[in-house]
Amino acid sequence: MKVSEALDKGTPTLSFEFFPPKTEEQEAKLFKVIATLKTLKPDYVSVTYGALGNTREKTFYWVKKIKEDFGLEPVVHLTCVAAGRDEILAQIRQLQEIKIDNVLALRGDPPQGDDEFVAPAGGLAHASDLVAFIRRQVPEICLGVAGCPEKHPEATSFYSDILHLKAKVAAGADYICTQLFFDNKAFFNFREKCQKAGIKVPIIPGLMPITSFKLLTKMTEMCGATIPDDLSAKLEKNADDHEAVLKIGVEQTVRQCQELLDKGAPGLHFFVMNQSSPISEILKEVPTFSRRR
């Protein structure tokens, strides 16, 4: 099933995002996590790959396994990183062979240490170029793109960032999934600006359950998300108490979920960090999804 078809049903979608494991032990753990989260009946799950595309082949293997062994609908991340047009086309054909209907098209991050992204020889420079390229090659595929409620770190302004997002939608994107955020006001402001800019596709908020103050700090530094002062104060006070941080994180995410759904979010997408327990605890407290069990 395509993500666009799930969104067309008119009930909020539920989705999870996994990242590539680095060892066989982590891989075995990931499959256990997927089996557990399957009981929450997600509409789809997405799978990332390494910043340099260096886990791409394994990612395709995991995607195939998720679809065939777990019966879940996968969304595959594709980027412009380290791949020319011919290689990207080969990847698309490979995904068609394993009957993947959903792709999240991203530019990708520059290699660590580089200040800016440089397109590879024969490659693509922007996510909008990737969307247009995939759309021409496979018109029937469902394409998602990323949006940043608090502006992409590389964008010169919020306005320019919205224009880049509009270009991705104009190129053929079916929906937008946002980067993580912890202040719903940022999402509502972002959604309003998108609407005023003429962006009409569904915008799905992306949420990351807080499980570690150290991890939270790292993630927010990478993506530019801000932490509300009251939340930051609570977390700093309890930074060395793992159970307290988990409790604060669950309460925070539950509040976010309920307000987002109450104000018309078409679904919720969770960056689960390859863990099942926090998200299970959160969704128990969100009636829209707890009733799915």
Biggest sheet: strands, sense, closure?
8 strands, parallel, barrel
CATH architecture: Alpha-Beta Barrel
Total of helices? 12
Shape: globular
CATH class: Alpha Beta
Rg from Cα: 18 Å
Oligomer category: single chain
Mean pLDDT: 91
CATH topology: TIM Barrel
Order of helices and strands: HEHEHEHEHEHEHEHHHEHH
> What structural class do you assign from the helix and strand content?
alpha/beta
Order of strands in the sheet with most strands = 1-2-3-4-5-6-7-8
Estimate the helix proportion, in percent.
Answer: 40-55%
For the termini, the CA-CA separation is: 20 Å
> Which regions contain 5 or more consecutive residues with pLDDT less than 50?
none
Proportion of beta-strand residues: 5-15%
The tally of beta strands, per DSSP, is 8
Number of domains: 1
